[in-house]
Design a protein that fits this description.
This protein is mostly helical and 312 residues long. It has eight helices and five strands. Helix 2 packs across helix 3 and helix 5 runs antiparallel to helix 6.
Length: 312
């Protein structure tokens, strides 16, 4: 891979590790200093491909290859309008054709292939599916908001449990410190045997009940994961079309020559005498040298009886 460098000043990260690169719709990389100089008036041509660019169109480059950033941004922009789901189609085949069309549009825009025709297809799609696009956008926003609310609810639940545990631990420590303080006072004031006093307060400390977390005043009813998938429900509805069972049929080779020996006869006929054996790594990968040897034999005899007729 070529070294990442600015197309205007040819500076690279190797020469200046502090450089910050940005990209625009053409996919060519420029450093922040060159963008300030070349696009001082707000717009100008790309130094390499001369495509008109705007200064506010530059975005911070995340990947080493700027074409990846261009594809990510293009895909994000296209999917805002091409937001139909499988429920919007009558069959799975129609939905798959729709996904193929999206990939073709993204590929053309990223590779600068038939850009004018592709943009016309996009505009036509927007006009014909205006209501569906707006409906799916609102639906997506509602799902995102519901997901954010669920994540926030889970965070609050986790924080509540954590606070309960901390409060219980603090209460346990306070009770034990109180028992220790009473033990010291008893040892200082009482004339009884010290062992009996220590044993008494040891039992008191052991009898301190372990407080359990209190139930939440308003129980949280979790019905789905933070990803939005409901419990006990598959994330993707799969429709399986039953078809005929697979029936194995051996491959028949039409050889224009003598018949080849079977793979089990290669050793006895001496074909394997001067061929190396498989290595342990090849055997682990499923490679058999007999199969390759049989293919070589078939290639050698496949055209021995062929006659050239001179016809094309």
């Amino acid at each position: 891979m070529e070294e990442l460098a600015c197309v205007r000043c040819m500076s690279s990260k190797f020469r200046n590790p502090n450089l910050v690169f940005s990209f625009n719709v053409c996919g060519h990389t420029m450093c922040a200093n060159c963008i300030e100089v070349a696009f001082m008036k707000g717009s100008g041509p790309c130094p390499k491909c001369l495509i008109p660019l705007r200064r506010n169109g530059f975005k911070l480059q995340q990947f080493e290859d700027a074409s990846v950033d261009v594809e990510v941004e293009t895909r994000k922009k296209i999917l805002q309008d091409f937001n139909k789901t499988e429920d919007d189609f009558e069959s799975l085949d129609d939905y798959n054709e729709y996904l193929i069309e999206i990939e073709d549009i993204i590929y053309n825009l990223v590779r600068n292939i038939n850009v004018v025709e592709t943009k016309e297809r996009i505009d036509q799609y927007k006009r014909e599916n205006k209501e569906i696009i707006m409906r799916n956008r609102m639906k997506s926003k509602r799902e995102e908001q519901a997901l954010d609310d669920l994540i926030e609810e889970e965070k609050m639940h986790t924080q509540y449990k954590r606070d309960e545990v901390l409060r219980d631990e603090a209460e346990q420590r306070t009770k034990k410190l109180r028992v220790d303080s009473e033990l010291i006072d008893s040892l200082a004031r009482s004339n009884s045997d010290a062992r009996d006093i220590v044993n008494t307060y040891t039992h008191k400390k052991e009898e301190i009940p372990v407080s359990k977390p209190k139930p939440i005043s308003k129980p949280i009813n979790f019905t789905k994961f933070s990803t939005g998938v409901k419990f006990n429900q598959s994330s993707i509805s799969i429709s399986i079309k039953e078809g005929p069972l697979f029936k194995y049929e051996p491959v028949s080779h039409q050889l224009n020559g003598p018949s080849c020996p079977d793979i089990t006869q290669l050793d006895s006929l001496g074909y394997m005498k001067y061929i190396r054996r498989e290595s342990p790594q090849e055997l682990a990968g499923g490679f058999l040298i007999k199969t390759s040897c049989l293919h070589y034999v078939q290639e050698c005899v496949s055209a021995l009886y062929e006659r050239k007729t001179g016809k094309v």
